[in-house]
Design brief:
By secondary structure, the protein is mainly β. It is built from 1 helix and 6 strands. Strand 3 and strand 4 form a beta hairpin. It is globular and about 35 Å long.
């Protein structure tokens, strides 16, 4: 399954660099199936960054991903991520 990186998770005053919002599906029911799986992003240089899908984000098929290391760089916005 593939997903696309939508945005960093952020609030009014803070941006959480280790948390991202992914567009996984078009419906909430399909997005619920992805919770608990691993999201893997590979950089152009070949570095692999893994994160865990933690919960739904909104009602349009988006999910939240928490990355263990340092999170994704800004160049990952709009790119594809593998969901395993």
């Amino acid at each position: 399954m593939e997903a696309s990186v939508v945005h960093f998770r952020q609030g009014r005053h803070h941006q959480h660099p280790k948390q991202m919002v992914l567009k996984v599906a078009d419906s909430v029911e399909e997005a619920k199936k992805a919770v608990g799986k691993t999201a893997v992003w590979t950089s152009p240089a070949g570095k692999v960054i893994k994160g865990t899908i933690s919960a739904l984000h909104g009602r349009n098929g988006n999910v939240r991903v928490i990355f263990a290391e340092k999170g994704l760089p800004g160049q990952a916005l709009g790119k594809k991520v593998k969901v395993e």
